[in-house]
Specification:
Residues 19-89 form the HTH gntR-type domain. This protein is mainly alpha-helical. It is built from eleven helices and two strands; from the N terminus they run ααααββααααααα. It folds into two domains: 3-88, Orthogonal Bundle (Arc Repressor Mutant, subunit A); 95-243, Four Helix Bundle (Hemerythrin (Met), subunit A) (Up-down Bundle). The model has no long low-confidence stretch (mean pLDDT 88).
């Protein structure tokens, strides 16, 4: 399964929280749309199929879809080819992310940073020990072809590089967790990439990670991976203070 297909599978995987609240379903699907894993015009599973995949009641799935329609993230078509279709709008997505940032506490943001740093840092350490010449060539191509001219391009570059590092670690669980975190937390974590200096910082950090892997230096690979995550956390805190 390719990384994009695996990421989409995580969007529709069972929710960890057993309460099955509609807001949890809404957040999962919204993150999938904002992160680009669910594309504009894409048809979602039916209410019953969605409920089964996420492990919630059909009424919960229906309520979540209604919320997303009200937010302008979905539209409904009737008939044989009908269903719920993604309607991605940058302004709507940006507003939702701003609202989410304002509603997140410092503790929640710090926890996001800690979990992401622990996961990505461990994957980088393992990759430095296990990378083959072919793996290094793949990372080199990814780094060279990264488009950081826009926030969206920079997010995709960070996501692809992170997934490749996790794959090189040869830990299926690390790969699954990396994909899950990207789907659930990537949109808010990398809000800083709207600013050019953070896009450059991330690009340069990937270069240092790649060099550390070439030198078989696990400690430096971890540190270079974690550094832009810390910077992203600090940006989130500063932005939250500015908007409060």
């Amino acid at each position: 399964m390719g990384s994009q297909n695996a990421a989409r599978a995580v969007v529709f995987s069972p929710l960890d929280d057993g309460t099955g609240r509609a807001q949890l379903v809404t957040q999962r699907l919204t993150d999938g749309i904002i992160s680009g894993m669910l594309k504009d015009g894409e048809r979602l599973p039916s209410e019953s199929d969605l409920a089964k995949r996420l492990g919630v009641a059909v009424t919960t799935a229906r309520e979540a879809l209604d919320i997303m329609r009200d937010q302008g993230l979905l539209r409904t078509r009737r008939g044989r080819e009908g269903g719920s279709f993604v309607t991605y709008d940058r302004e709507t997505a940006a507003k939702l992310l701003d609202d989410r940032l304002r509603s997140s506490s410092r503790i929640e943001l710090r926890d996001l940073c800690l979990v992401t740093s622990a996961l990505a840092g461990t994957a980088a350490e393992e990759a430095a020990d296990r990378a083959s010449d072919e793996d290094i060539e793949t990372l080199t191509v990814l780094a060279a072809n990264a488009d950081i001219s826009t926030a969206g391009g920079a997010r995709r570059a960070a996501a692809r590089f992170g997934l490749e590092i996790a794959a090189i670690s040869q830990s299926p669980r690390l790969v699954r967790e990396e994909i899950r975190l990207q789907a659930e937390s990537g949109p808010i974590l990398w809000l800083c990439l709207t600013e050019e200096k953070y896009r450059i910082l991330n690009r340069d950090a990937r270069g240092r990670v790649l060099e550390a892997i070439r030198r078989v230096d696990p400690a430096q690979a971890r540190e270079s991976t974690v550094q832009p995550i810390r910077a992203a956390f600090e940006w989130l805190i500063e932005q939250r203070v500015r908007e409060s």
